[in-house]
What does this fold into?
Amino acid sequence: MYHRSFVSIPVVLLAASLAWACSGDGTGPGGGSGNNPPPDTASTTPPVTLRSRAEAHDLYVGSAAATGLNRGDAAYADTLAAEFDMVTPENAMKFDATHPQPGLYTFAAGDTIVAFAEKNGMKVRGHTLVWQNQLPDWVRNGTWTKQSLSDTLKAHIQNVVGHYKGKIHAWDVVNEPFNGDGTLQSNIFLQTIGPDYIELAFRWAHEADPDAKLYLNEYGAEDMGTKSDSLYALVSRLKADGVPIDGVGMQMHLATQYGAPSTTDLAANMKRLGDLGLKVEITEMDVRTAVPTTADGVAKQVQMYRDVVGACRAASNCDAIVFWGFTDKYSWVPSTFTGQGAALLYDASYHRKETFAAVLDALQ
Ligand code: XIL
It folds into this structure.
């Protein structure tokens, strides 16, 4: 099916041909020498890319993008545009980035990513409106009443969603609201507004952009268990109460030392959400492993990527797979998990890794 965004084919092809020429791993369409003119778009079959494979199955394939789209790293921008048809700003739309001082909104970094997406026929996942992390001090350590924090959160959500109205495919409205034991995270919003902060956030976001899909995004709730049961109970109640929620984001930050959720669990969890009328998107996938990598670690990564992409493809309500970056050159993993890395699809020199081949194959 080619109903999605093929307006930008010439740009994509040009960018893709550059990426093939750079990657030189033999999986490309051949002939991508830098001395040759770009392919004749009228008579050439589009190259096989992650996005062309995904589009053929009515799926989106995306990547988080660091603000470093303007790092002047041409290979970064070219590869992102060639291979992906969805992008999530990694940090640029978070509370501390968009609303650093009371009443001061800064959208330049997010705007750069949205403009890049528009130019390259990509959808944007907005990330994220309500989260206990990357929250500026004036919010985290402010003196609040229930009314004043509600007013502030509503203004934040409606200004940010309003600024990007019509440009965002889906918003992660609430991010990581649960603890591992299935209770709600005790953040400033829960403490001050109470558990209703979640449904209020969805209602406020919907008022500001009725066409954006609205998601609750969580990690560690991909398999069947305490945390995903609590999440399921919450979203069941939201749906029953008519709260405008469209889907659940499964972050999918995985590690070879723990393995992937079983494909049976993934299928069951996606299905029960689907039965409520909810979509599922894989929103932040990466698979970290001990570095330097071993053959065993890489083999595990390959299998885990295959399993998760396969689970999304098999679930009728799973419509996007977004990775938390694509090159190991820019990944949150090494600075966050000591001794871990190599979590993505490309190495730091933009060579496709075995994980790339696994994802491309699983999308076939
Ligand atoms: C991470 C970013 O990748 C880092 O650059 C930043 O320093 C911290 O946040 N779950 C999320 C993402 O929802 O927003 C986080 O992103 C990774 C975990």
About this structure: Strands lie at 60-65, 86-89, 123-130, 170-175, 213-218, 247-250, 253-255, 279-290, 318-323, 340-341.
